[in-house]
Write a structure and sequence with these properties.
Layout: E1 2-4, E2 10-14, H1 16-30, E3 49-50, E4 53-54, H2 57-65, H3 69-76, H4 87-90, E5 92-94, H5 96-110, H6 115-129, H7 133-146
Parallel strand pairs: 2-5
Antiparallel strand pairs: 1-2, 3-4
Length: about 150
Amino acid sequence: MRTTDHTGTTVVHIDGERALRLLLDVVTEHGAEHVYIYHPGGHLSCRYVWDGCPDCLVGRALHLAGVPVHALQQLDADPDTCAIGQADVVGAEFTGEARWILSAAQGRQDSGDRWGDAVGKAAATAEQLGVDPSVVDDVRRGLDALRGGRS
């Protein structure tokens, strides 16, 4: 969901369910086996934008939600900046559940895991947080389908 605040700025709202679905959408597009590739001369952490396009798992998910590329690029200027902790910089508003879910996926990606595994971790985190079980189950079924039926 997107709204406009009192200054006319568009704000993207992301709750736990939406965060989980967005992550699955990215994995559906790029594959469960995809592993983030760090770019030469880049940070030791992921880049939200590379060559003018969203790049990492969370960056792509935020872009699908409506966060513009130029907002994500602002985060790459400081390698210690994280979109999840700097929602206001990218024009987003996250619920606590969304922060935990996105952080779980980000952590697994940054550890070199496949994106399907990162979203699996995010689904486990969502389940622990009490996110709607039907959404968690839908995401797990989607991951299983992408993996050819193996969990």
